[in-house]
């Protein structure tokens, strides 16, 4: 606070001294002082500082003026209004300039300088009349003269001092320190010229001043010129006031001398400042340009060095027509030409004659010009006529206006890679051909082996069926039959394996219910398991029943039969379990997993890896004991891979084993089950199934879940009881049941329901013609042979509950 | 139905032992086998007297099984046919069914299975109320 106050006082005193000096210089004795440095300095300050901060200076200037006048002329009440008018005039002129010309005035242009002078003059005239009006009441009665001289002197003072203040304040003060020499030189020149001008009164050397200031501007730029002008103004006015220089000889009155000098100085300022600004700007630009040119030369040299040093890529520039403009070491190495030999030639010369004739190079340039960049590979010709395989990238280069300047081209010699690729392709083709030949050979051989094998199997079967063979002969025939069947299995496996190896495995994905597939497999091997006293179960993980996925059912069945067959073969007591689960992923795909767990001897970890390799059975003794080709698991793995899935085993010795297969699959919308036609179309038929085997009951439920309402019972007696309580559309009865068999139950049902009895169907494992016929004779409407197959069940329900006659659909299918 | 009447089964197979084997099976089942070795003989036999069923090999010299089926279709004959294939090839089976074959059997075959299929072949349409789902 005190600091601010002290500053204000200092400024007030500074303004007072300035005003007093002006009064002393003019030495007129009137109140009309023709020199007004305070107005000029204040105008400069007002141009530099913003509105509110200027108030401080305005007050200081008004106070300083009043003080100086009181000191010079004695106390007079008009001095305060005079001070206010002086400061107000400067302030108004500055604000008007900023409004009309621009917020930041640098006096570097004619427009700014002339505009400022014009505005100062226009503002000064009304101020001059106010001043004249004020002083009229005190001492100076000549109103018009006072008004005009005041106006003129104010305008001139502003024009002289304001630009000098602005430029000095804006000038980088630090810049002067680093340029002591030009500053010293300028000072010497100015001192000499000023001395010459104002010590001689006979010759008007004033014309030297503008020349000197221009020289200073050249040496010390605009800041130097501004200082020179300031010095000139002070010296000229002081000298003139003191009676030196040429003017006192020309004009009598001191105010006139001062006024003329002011006009001269104002003209100097407004003309020379823009000149100085232009000069110094030009100097600056020149320096900038020089450094920019140097920089770009350095960069270009560096880039050239880098490009030239690249010797595995040909990096060249082409002009807009496709002629070579630059050439690097890589280009020389790859193409064989030196820069002298090739620059100026068209890139056509690198192309083989046929490509040249076809216009390939021109097409490439055109494509690059159209799309800015093309990449290409092809044969090119070296200087010595040899060919190489080139990989190239061509970029169009464009000017600021988008016009085509030329192209940059980077070429690599890819001959080695090309040769490698070609060799690889040939090797691959050869390998494929060899694999194909092998697969064909195996397929042919297996076909050829089949024919004699048909005889062996067929005739040994015939022999076996003969009743008149003795025991020894029967034993021999039995060996032949077993051997021939083993041979057939081997042939089948080899054919499958060769298909898998040559990638010819042909998958036919269709919607399949995995659960039904599992049931089918379990049914197929149930007898084998039963003979060994093993429990064999299918297990469904929650949520999968009734859902279909896309997969090749036949191939998956093959895998599962293999797994379950092995499990039954190698397990002596306990159980085998086939589980199905679906791991759904977020993206709508799913992984289907089948796993077969057994309670067999288990497999040591180091043996597990070998399992899925071809012709591997864990030990030869096991092979002898259990038979088999050793190809089964390799085939499973091949099928899994063809399905983009995986196989594996989890086991430890003594803890059984779990063989699994996992395949990615897509959920099918629904199994395309033909709906029963006719009146029952919308209403699902109700079914009663009696069987003592849970496996069969589950299968029936599964198979018919979307076709019918299925009720299951475990015995004939229960079935008979239930049909009297509830009506069914179809009844399926197993022939062998513990309490009451199928035939007996059928009889009871017919007795109880009479003509209203629904169709009755028998399940039987003894599916020879005579037995089936006898069942029909006994009163069944139809028979279904065991093992049950899903397709058969569905067909039967469709026939009996829907419209009859859809039987032919199943012709040709493997229904057994 | 007259189960007493002897059924005439045409066997077309070029391999002697297999033809013999099939003929033997057919005869043992109480039917009468007419065994021929190629398409021409087959068509000649059919022309002489229409068989009740036919066992037809696919791979035959000169005229293969498909061509024989085609010729039969072309003449407007209807003969229940069981195709014999050396290997279950889905494409072959489909083509044979499309050409009018009723069923197929893969070589080498099981005697029991062969007889089941043959009996089914001989029943023109399952009589009402007596359907065997095998």
Name the CATH superfamily classification of chain B: Response regulator
What is the strand content of chain A?
5-15%
What is the end-to-end distance of chain B?
A: 21 Å
Low-confidence stretches of chain B: none
Hey, which two chains have the biggest interface?
A: A-B, 38 and 33 residues
Radius of gyration of chain A: 58 Å
Oligomeric state of this protein: heterodimer
The structural domain count of chain B equals 1
> Which strand-content bin applies to the residues of chain B?
15-25%
Q: Strand tally of chain B, please?
A: 6
**Going across the major beta sheet of chain A, what is the strand order?**
2-1-5-4-3
Question: What is the arithmetic mean of pLDDT of chain A?
Answer: 81
Shape of chain B: globular
- Report the major sheet of chain B: 5 strands, parallel
List the domain count of chain A as a whole number.
6
CATH class of chain B: Alpha Beta
How does this structure look, described?
The complex is a heterodimer of chains A (816) and B (134). With 816 residues, chain A is α/β, with parallel strands linked by helices. Helices cover 59% and strands 14% of the residues of chain A. Chain A folds into 6 domains: 1-170; 172-307, no CATH class; 310-413, 2-Layer Sandwich (Beta-Lactamase); 423-501, Orthogonal Bundle (Helix Hairpins), CATH 1.10.287; 510-666, Heat Shock Protein 90; 679-810, Response regulator (Rossmann fold, 3-Layer(aba) Sandwich). Chain A contains 27 helices and 17 strands. In chain A, the strands form 4 sheets. Chain A has a 5-stranded antiparallel beta sheet, with helices on both faces. A 5-stranded mixed beta sheet of chain A has the order 7-9-10-12-11. Chain A has a 5-stranded parallel beta sheet with strand order 14-13-15-16-17, with helices on both faces. In chain A, a hairpin with a 5-residue loop joins strand 11 (646-651) and strand 12 (657-666). The longest helix of chain A is centred in the middle third of the chain and has 56 residues, at 254-309. Mean pLDDT of chain A is 81; it is low at 618-626, 671-682 and 803-816. Chain B is α/β, with parallel strands linked by helices and 134 residues long. Chain B has 5 helices and 6 strands, in the order βαβαβαβαβαβ. A 5-stranded parallel beta sheet of chain B has the order 2-1-3-4-5, sandwiched between helices. Chain B starts with 7 loop residues before the first strand and ends with a strand. Classes of the chains: A alpha/beta (816), B alpha/beta (134). Strand 17 (782-785) of chain A pairs parallel with strand 6 of chain B, so a sheet runs across the interface.
């Amino acid at each position: 606070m005190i600091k601010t106050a002290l500053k204000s006082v200092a400024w007030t005193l500074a303004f007072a001294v300035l005003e007093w000096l002006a009064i002393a210089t003019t030495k007129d004795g009137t109140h009309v002082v023709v020199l007004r440095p305070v107005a000029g300095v204040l105008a400069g300050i007002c141009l530099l500082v913003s509105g509110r901060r200027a108030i401080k200076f305005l007050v200081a200037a008004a106070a300083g003026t009043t003080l100086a006048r009181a000191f010079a002329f004695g106390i007079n009440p008009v001095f305060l209004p005079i001070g206010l008018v002086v400061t107000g005039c400067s302030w108004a002129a500055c604000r008007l300039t900023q409004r009309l010309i621009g917020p930041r005035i640098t006096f570097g242009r004619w427009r700014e300088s002339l505009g400022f002078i014009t505005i100062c003059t226009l503002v000064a005239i009304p101020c001059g009349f106010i001043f004249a009006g004020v002083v009229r009441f005190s001492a100076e009665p000549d109103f018009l003269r006072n008004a005009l001289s005041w106006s003129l002197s104010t305008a001139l003072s502003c024009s002289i001092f304001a630009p000098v203040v602005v430029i000095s304040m804006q000038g980088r003060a630090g810049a002067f320190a680093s340029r002591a020499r030009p500053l010293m030189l300028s000072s010497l020149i100015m001192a000499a010229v000023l001395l010459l001008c104002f010590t001689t009164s006979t010759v008007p050397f004033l014309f030297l001043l503008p020349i000197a200031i221009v020289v200073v501007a050249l040496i010390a730029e605009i800041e130097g010129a501004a200082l020179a002008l300031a010095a000139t103004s002070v010296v000229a006015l002081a000298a003139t006031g003191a009676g030196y220089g040429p003017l006192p000889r020309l004009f009598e009155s001191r105010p006139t001398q001062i006024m003329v000098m002011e006009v001269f100085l104002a003209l100097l300022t407004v003309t020379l400042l823009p000149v100085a600004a232009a000069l110094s700007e030009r100097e600056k630009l020149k320096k900038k340009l020089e450094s920019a040119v140097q920089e770009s030369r350095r960069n270009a040299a560096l880039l050239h060095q880098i490009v030239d040093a690249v010797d595995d890529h040909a990096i060249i520039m082409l002009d807009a027509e496709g002629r070579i403009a630059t050439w690097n070491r890589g280009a020389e190495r790859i193409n064989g030409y030196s820069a002298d030999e090739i620059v100026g030639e068209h890139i056509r010369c690198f192309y083989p004659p046929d490509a040249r004739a076809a216009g390939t190079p021109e097409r490439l340039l055109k494509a690059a010009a159209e799309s800015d960049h093309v990449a290409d590979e092809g044969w090119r010709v070296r200087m010595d006529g040899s060919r190489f395989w080139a990989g190239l990238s061509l970029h169009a280069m464009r000017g600021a206006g988008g016009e085509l300047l030329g192209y940059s081209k980077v070429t690599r010699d890819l001959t080695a890679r090309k040769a490698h690729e070609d060799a690889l392709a040939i090797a691959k083709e050869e390998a494929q051909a060899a694999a194909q030949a092998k697969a064909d050979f195996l397929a042919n051989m297996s076909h050829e082996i089949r024919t004699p094998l048909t005889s062996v199997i067929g005739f040994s079967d015939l022999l076996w069926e003969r009743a008149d063979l003795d025991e020894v002969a029967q034993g021999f025939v039995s060996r032949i039959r077993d051997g021939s069947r083993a041979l057939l299995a081997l042939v089948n496996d080899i054919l499958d394996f060769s298909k898998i190896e040559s990638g010819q495995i042909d998958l036919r994905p269709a919607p399949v219910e995995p659960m039904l597939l599992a049931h089918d497999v379990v049914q197929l091997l149930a007898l084998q398991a039963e003979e060994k006293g093993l429990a064999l179960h299918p297990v469904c993980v929650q949520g999968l029943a009734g859902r279909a996925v896309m997969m090749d059912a036949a191939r998956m069945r093959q895998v599962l039969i293999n797994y379950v067959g092995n499990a039954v073969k190698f397990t002596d007591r306990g159980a085998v379990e086939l589980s199905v689960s679906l791991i759904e992923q977020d993206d709508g795909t799913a992984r289907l997993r089948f796993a077969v767990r057994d309670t067999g001897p288990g497999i040591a970890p180091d043996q597990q890896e070998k399992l899925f390799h071809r012709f591997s059975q864990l030990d030869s003794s096991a092979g002898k004991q259990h038979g088999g080709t050793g190809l089964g698991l390799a085939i499973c793995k091949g099928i899994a891979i063809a399905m983009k899935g995986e196989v594996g085993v989890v086991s430890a010795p003594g803890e059984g084993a779990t063989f699994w297969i996992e395949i990615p699959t897509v959920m099918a919308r629904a199994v395309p089950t033909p709906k029963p036609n006719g009146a029952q179309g919308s209403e699902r038929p109700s079914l009663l199934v009696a069987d003592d085997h849970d496996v069969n009951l589950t299968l029936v439920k599964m198979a018919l879940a979307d076709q019918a309402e299925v009720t299951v019972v475990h015995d004939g007696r229960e079935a008979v009881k239930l049909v009297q309580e509830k009506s069914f559309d179809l009844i399926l009865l197993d022939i062998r049941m513990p309490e009451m068999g199928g035939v007996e139950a059928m009889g009871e049902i017919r007795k109880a329901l009479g003509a209203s009895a629904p169709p009755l169907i028998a399940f039987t494992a003894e599916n020879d013609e005579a037995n089936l016929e006898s069942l029909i004779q006994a009163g069944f409407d139809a028979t279904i042979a065991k093992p049950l197959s899903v397709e058969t069940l569905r067909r039967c329900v469709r026939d009996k509950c829907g419209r009859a006659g859809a039987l032919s659909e199943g012709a040709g299918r493997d229904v057994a | 139905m007259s189960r007493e009447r002897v059924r005439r089964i045409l066997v077309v197979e070029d391999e002697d032992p297999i033809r013999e084997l099939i003929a033997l099976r057919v005869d043992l089942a109480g039917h009468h086998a007419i065994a021929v070795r190629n398409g021409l003989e087959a068509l000649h036999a059919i022309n002489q007297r229409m068989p009740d069923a036919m066992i037809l090999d696919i791979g035959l010299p000169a005229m293969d099984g498909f061509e024989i089926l085609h010729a039969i279709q072309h003449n407007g004959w209807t003969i229940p046919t069981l195709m014999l294939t050396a290997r279950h090839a889905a494409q072959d089976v489909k083509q044979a069914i499309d050409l009018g074959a009723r069923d197929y059997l893969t070589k080498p075959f099981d005697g029991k299975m062969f007889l089941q299929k043959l009996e089914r072949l001989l029943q023109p349409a399952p009589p009402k109320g007596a359907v065997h789902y095998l």
